[in-house]
Amino acid sequence: MKSSARFINKPPFKHTFGAMAALLFLSACAVGPDYQMPPPSLSQHYDQQAEQRLGQQQRIDLGRKVNGDWWSAFQSPKLDKVVRRAIDGNLELVAADATIRQAASSVAAAEGALYPQVDFGAQAGRQRVHNGKEPAISNFYAIGPRVGFDLDVFGGNQRLVEQQDAFTDLQRHRYEAAYLTLTGSVASQALLVASANAQMRAVETLLANDARNLELVRMAHVNGTTTQIDVALAETRLAQDRTLLPPLAQQRDSARHALSILTGKGPGDWSAPDFDLDEFVLPANVPVSVPSEMAHERPDVLQAEAQLHMASAAVGVATANLYPHVTLSASLAQAASGNGGAALWGFAAGLAGPLFDGGTLKAERQAAVDGYKASLAGYQQTVISSFGQVADTLQAINHDAEEHQAQQAALQAAQTSLQLNRQAYAQGENSILQVLEAERAYQQALLGQIRVKTAQYLDTVRLYVALGGNSVGAFEQRVAYREGQKPSYQ
Q: What is the pTM of this model?
């Protein structure tokens, strides 16, 4: 370590300015790798078979991004109000917001190391000196500012700032992921409420038919035209169908409670409105961005990229630690001892670097390099998994359409059978029991159609979420709202 100090009454700054300028110029260098964004995927399809088969009830517009509020595609004003309420009140978003601001403060703290550090010092005391015939006792004091500056010649502090900046990006994308999950959950729970309500109405009609059937069978048994076996069979059907209602009521109530929690309220403080399945419209044309573009639209992929950036900066920090640190310091003080006083200034340059550390610093750099490789593999895996999620959802929508078509045919057949049985009963060709049985078959087919329709809606929600749901930039919307500006989701 080399240092020099000089104390005179006037500081000759002109003599030191050139040396300081040269050292400051050196601080522009930053060792370690400069982060480069991973190349985009070359894939242009998720699942060509699934993409080609879509088109009966729903089509995809491959290459078009999701714009605006994706849930508005279902054309439900009631859903839109609940989603907006959730965005404003959800506590996970509040926590994620605070975490981003905490990370931004960490960036500002790291950036402080790039500037000179100025502090103020003062000292006072009483001393005894034995340098004469008689010991001398005197008071002393020193007061003045001090300045220290790490030139960061090899960019270690710059890489730390870069790492903290990437961490802030990571937190921002975590907010976007929470926003995406929130909006998807609200839409899904609202659809579950609507589905439960529709199924409960169908089950109530089914139970009414079962009760009428049982009454008629009992009357016929009294008249001697049926046996006790027929009565037991009718009672069994009614008892079995009654078991369908409690689970549906539980599904409805659980979904309502979930909606309350998602909006930041307890179930006792706010109740979600009742949704009807008929108030939703199944989007006929869903925009689907190509795989090479979707990587910049999904928060989880952007999170993985931010982690990769952090790992790259960590390699730079570990590399800079292998090199010396150059520091500058200066002080200016008014000092006095006894009856004398003087203005003192000092300037020093320091150089410190590793000579032998048992291989610690090289091992730390190698660990950072390996960490970067792990983050790169994690990023690539996240991208591939996101493609698979979209492909799975596209296939699910295809299968939903097939099941819907089959269920629709079953419903039409049951309706035709019901009409024929009613006509035959009016003409005296069959009994009321056959009519009630046809009504029961129709209600069961209607229940199946409601379930398939619900699956279509839910899988469409999952597709929007898998595509990122236009969630990138959601934090900026929240900042605009906090600053009194109208966000895009209002």
A: 0.84
